[in-house]
Specification:
The chain is of the alpha/beta class. It has ten helices and twelve strands.
């Protein structure tokens, strides 16, 4: 049954304080679903299914109802031509951009690091350095992914985007069930052995990264890794009004913490994405069961439908 824009949830949203919209932790909307997103912006709303309860919710995407749009992506280029228009409409934009540079047996379809760095710089020019956050996460450890590996890659990336961002967020991979299964498959194919490192190894990697971040002008933050917090590594709040205040935006209401997992520092937001729909094929991904599942769901996508993945 189709429910239009007059649903109670949407009415309540329109009459309440503006919401923070996450676009999206569950998938890479800028990379694969920019046409759908812009269609929904023009329409002024989208429909989201709760991934845990199955209930539907209509979400306003009108500028006056959105405090900010927080994007999560590895490739924002498909959205570049729309960014000036989004800013002109009055949207506050914040981009979390992941650049890690893993071997192809771990990241089979992510852009080359040099291309990602170029796009990061262009995104910063279209917005500003305060609006583009570099994510070097998750950090994986194995016989080949050592402290030296991460320090070298981190330095190369930091130097290539120096001056185009001010914050970098790091975290170590969490070995959820789906992550263990996918990495076990990689181990069988390649012979590489992944491990969940002890805190001493995490601290050693963090200590190696801190001075590199500092000399390249990045403040370092850690996501859901409170053991790493110290004066030179602050606790990350990936979705937070601090980003807007930092850009000079004056808030007219208060926003509450609403963590999505243990040690998360994020504020309340509405995620408009869908799990099992990202095509980048990262073997450590928390949001995709398998690449085949993502391809299957992508094939069900309709850029004109109110939902990202209908059904």
């Amino acid at each position: 049954m189709f429910f239009g824009i007059g649903r109670l949830e949407l009415f309540l949203m329109k009459t309440g304080k503006p919401k923070i919209i996450s676009v999206s932790r569950r998938t890479d909307i800028p990379a694969f679903y920019s046409e759908w997103f812009m269609n929904r912006i023009r329409t002024g709303w989208c429909r989201v299914r709760n991934p845990y309860g199955g209930n539907f919710r209509d979400v306003s995407l009108k500028p006056e109802d959105c405090l900010a749009l927080f994007f999560w992506t590895r490739n924002a280029e498909p959205l570049f031509r729309h960014i000036p228009g989004l800013i002109e409409l009055g949207f506050n934009l914040v981009f979390h951009v992941t650049i890690v540079d893993y071997p192809r047996y771990i990241e089979s379809a992510t852009p080359e690091t040099e291309i990602s760095a170029h796009r990061f710089r262009e995104l910063s020019r279209l917005t500003d350095a305060r609006s583009v956050i570099w994510r070097y996460d998750p950090i994986l450890c194995s016989d080949g992914l050592t402290l030296e590996y991460h320090a070298e890659r981190f330095a190369q990336i930091a130097e290539s985007i120096q001056g185009y961002g001010r914050r970098c967020i790091i975290s170590f991979a969490d070995f959820y069930g789906k992550t263990k299964r996918r990495l076990s498959d990689v181990e069988r194919r390649t012979g590489h052995r992944f491990r969940d490192p002890p805190i001493t190894e995490k601290l050693a990697i963090a200590d190696a990264i801190v001075p590199i971040a500092r000399r390249n002008g990045f403040e370092l933050f850690t996501c859901c890794e409170d053991d790493l917090v110290r004066p030179d590594i602050r606790k990350a709040r990936c979705i937070h009004t601090d980003y807007l205040v930092d850009k000079g935006f004056r808030l007219s209401g208060s926003y509450s913490p609403r963590p999505t997992r243990r040690q998360c520092g994020c504020m309340e937001s509405i995620d408009i994405g869908a799990y099992d729909s990202c095509l980048f094929g990262c073997e450590y991904c928390y949001a995709v069961r398998s690449h085949d599942a993502a391809v299957d769901r992508y094939c069900k996508h309709n850029p004109d439908h109110p939902m990202l993945i209908p059904g």
